[in-house]
Each structure stands twice: as C-alpha cells, then as structure tokens.
Design goal:
With about 80 residues, the chain is of the alpha+beta class. About 20% of the residues lie in helices and about 45% in strands.
Length: about 80
C-alpha cells in the first residue's frame, strides 16, 4: 500500500502544576494531537527529534560556535490509491 505522510510539530515540554500528574498531562497533550489529526483520516506513525544547528552569533566570541535546538515532529500517514 502507498502512503501519504504529514508531519506536525509537537511541544518538546509542557508545564504541569503537580508532579503526580506529569505523565497524565503529557499523555493528554499527545492524545489531543493524535485525535486532532485522526479526524481527517491520519494515522499516527511516529515521533522524531530533529536538531537544528545555527551559528551562535555574538556568543561565538566565547567559544560557542553553534547553537543547537531540538524540535519534535509527529509523523502521520494515510493510505492512498496507487
């Protein structure tokens, strides 16, 4: 079967009010992202992390040559007729 893919950014961290609820709130956040796209027929496939490297700018004078930011991306797929 052939697939069409769609990627969307996912928050790398969420704020929680209670340490006891951390896992539940993280799961609820991911569940909301999955449900949002499932309505249109997208099936969750996986989550990937991508590092984006940028020149450090003025921090380069202190030996910091590259600034790295991690981004989390959820990949969805749905079947298409070939």
């Amino acid at each position: 079967m052939a697939y069409q893919y769609k990627t969307v950014p996912v928050a790398p961290a969420i704020g929680v009010a209670s340490k006891k609820k951390q896992g539940h709130q993280a799961a609820a956040h991911l569940q909301s992202v999955l449900d949002e796209h499932a309505v249109d027929g997208w099936e969750f496939f996986r989550i990937d992390t991508f590092d984006v490297h940028r020149p450090a700018g003025c921090l380069a004078i202190f030996g910091e040559g590259t600034e790295v930011t991690a981004y989390y991306v959820a990949t969805f797929r749905r079947g298409i007729s070939a």
